[in-house]
Amino acid sequence: MKHIVIVGGGPSGCMAAISSKTLHPDAKVTLLEGNDRLGIKLRLTGGGRCNLTANVSADEIIKHTPRNGRFLYSSLNQFNVQDIMHFFTSRGLALKEEDHHRIFPVSNKAGDVVSVLENELIKLGVEIRFKSRVVSIDDKHKKLILEQGELSFDHLILAMGGCTYPQTGSDKHGFEMIESLGHSISELKPAEVPLVSNAPIIQSKELQGLSFKDVSITSYVNDKKIFSVTHDLLFTHFGLSGPGALQSSSYLCDAFKDNSTVSLMIDFLPNISFEDLENDDLDLILMKNTIPKRLIQVFKTQFPDQDLSYLLKRFKLELHGTRGFTTAFVTSGGVNLKEINPKTLLSKIHPWLSICGESLDVNSLTGGFNMTVAFSTGYTAGANIEL
Ligand SMILES: Cc1cc2nc3c(=O)[nH]c(=O)nc-3n(C[C@H](O)[C@H](O)[C@H](O)COP(=O)(O)OP(=O)(O)OC[C@H]3O[C@@H](n4cnc5c(N)ncnc54)[C@H](O)[C@@H]3O)c2cc1C
To answer: Which of 141, 182, 262, 290 suits 228 as a labelling partner, its CA being 20 to 30 A distant?
Structure first.
C-alpha cells in the first residue's frame, strides 16, 4: 500500500491530508504533528475566534497578498473561498461574515473549526500522530527521522508553516529541513507584525491603550507613499498594533532593513473633510466620532503650536522597526517559488515532494487571507499527488 505522509497539522496540512485521502482512498495517509493537538496557530487567529477566510473573490485574495500573490491563481482555481466556506458549512459549522468580509464560526470558537477538520480526518481514515516532531528527512531512502523512530513514505507533503510565534510549533527548523532537500529559501522576515516607534509621544506612553475603529493609515518610505488602508488601530507602549498597523507592516519590513525613513500618516476622521472640521462644531464632531478625550489632551500638550484639526487629519508618526518573529502573525519569505509547480505544488526538484501553506514564499494580509492561502494550497498539494 502506498504511503502519503503530511508533516504539520495546521490548516494547510489538515486540508492536504483530507484532499489526498479523498483522491487516494486506497493509500495509507499519515498526518504528523509535533504538538499534542491540531491547529495551535489557527486557534489564535481572529482573537481566538478563528478568522478562517475572507468572503471575497480570488482576485481580491491576490490583491491582499503583498508578496507573490499571482502564484496563487491556480490553487484558488482549485479550492477557493466558496469551497472553504462550503467545506465547513456542509459539515455542520455555521459561519458568519463580519466587517472587512472576515468569516468566523457563529460559535466564535476556533476550536470548532479544528474539530471539523479533525472529525473529517478521522472519518476518512487518516492516521493522526501527535507529539511526532520530524527532526530530519532522509531523501535517499524516502524516510523521516522523528524524535522517536522513523517513518517511510512514497509521497511527502510538507506543511510546517512559517517561523512566527515559534511556541506554536512552526519555527525555522522547518525551513532548514526543506533546504536540506536542495530547495532554496528566500530571506525570512516578520510580516503582519506590530510596529515600533521611538517618537516621544509613543515613548511617553500617554496614548497606550487607545484604540480606533476604521482610521485611515498611509505608509511612507523616504516620504514616498507606498500603502493605504482603512482599518482598526491600537496604540501600545511600544508603538502601534491592530489590523491597520499589522497590514501596513507587510509593506514596510524591507524598508526597516534598509535603514530608510519610515512613517505612517493617520487620519482619525477619514469621513470628515478639513472644511467640515473648520466650519462645524469641533467638539460635536469629536463626540459623534468617539474620538477619546485623552488623544485631544495629549495632542494639545505635546504639540501646543499645531492646529488640532490638522493633527486629527494628518498625524505623522515615525517608525523604527517591528516587534519581530515572536509577535508577527506571518512570515514573509520562504520556499523559492521557482522551484514549485504552481498548478500542483509539487517540488520541481523531487517528484515525491509537495510543499504548501505558510512555508511558501507568499504572504497575505491579516483578515482571513493567510488562512485562505493555507487551506487553498493545502487542498491543491493533496489533490495533485501522483502515486
Ligand atoms: C496570533 C496570530 C493571529 C493570526 N491571525 C490571522 C488572521 O486573522 N487571519 C489570517 O489569515 N491569518 C492569521 N494568522 C496567520 C495564520 O494563522 C497562518 O498563516 C496559518 O496558520 C498558516 O497555516 P499553515 O498550516 O501553513 O501553518 P501552521 O498553522 O503554522 O501549521 C504548521 C504546523 O506544523 C507543525 N510542525 C512544524 N514543524 C514540524 C515538525 N518538524 N514536525 C511535526 N510538526 C511540525 C506545527 O506544530 C504546526 O501545527 C495569524 C497568526 C497568528 C500567530
So the answer is: 290
13 confidence band (pLDDT: 50, 70, 90): very high
For residue 279, the enclosing domain spans 195-322
pLDDT for res 302: 93
- In angstroms, the Cα distances linking 113 to 23, 93, 95, 367 are 22, 8, 10, 16
Pocket probe mutation, ligand 1, options 36, 359, 370, max atoms within 8 Å of Cβ: 370
The CATH number of the domain holding residue 42 is 3.50.50.60
327: in domain: no
DSSP H or E run through 191: strand 189-191
- How many CB atoms neighbour CB 22 within 10 A? 15
pLDDT of residue 282: 80
**Cα gap 9→32, rounded to integer Å:** 7
Q: Is the pLDDT reported for residue 276 higher than 90?
A: no
Closest to 361 in 3D by CA, of 315, 327, 330, 317: 330
- Whether 121 maps to a domain, the answer reads yes
Q: Which three cell numbers stand for residue 164?
A: 512566527
> Do 175 and 200 sit in the same domain of this protein?
no
Among protein residues, the one whose CA lies closest to atom 34 of ligand 1: 8
23-36 pLDDT per residue, tens: 999 999 999 999 99
Segment 27-46 mean pLDDT: 97
Of 64, 9, 14, the C-alpha closest to 330 is: 64
Binding-site residues, ligand 1, Cβ < 6 A: 7-13, 32-35, 40-42, 44-46, 51, 133-134, 159-161, 164-165, 169-170, 173-174, 329-330, 357-358, 366-371, 374
- What's residue 192's pLDDT? 95
Q: Which three cell numbers stand for residue 246?
A: 499589522
Do residue 109 and residue 171 come from a single domain? Answer: yes
pTM, entire model:
0.94
Point out which residues pair with 144 in neighbouring strands. Answer: 137, 151
Model pLDDT for residues 142-164, shown as the tens digit of each residue = 999 999 999 999 999 999 999 99
Q: How far apart are CA 368 and CA 113, in angstroms?
A: 13
Residue ranges of the alpha helices (H) in 228-307?
A: 243-249, 253-257, 274-279, 282-288, 293-302
In a domain, 70, yes or no: yes
pLDDT score for 333: 95
Distance of CA 310 to the CA centre of its chain: 34
Phi and psi torsions of 90, nearest 5°: -70, -10
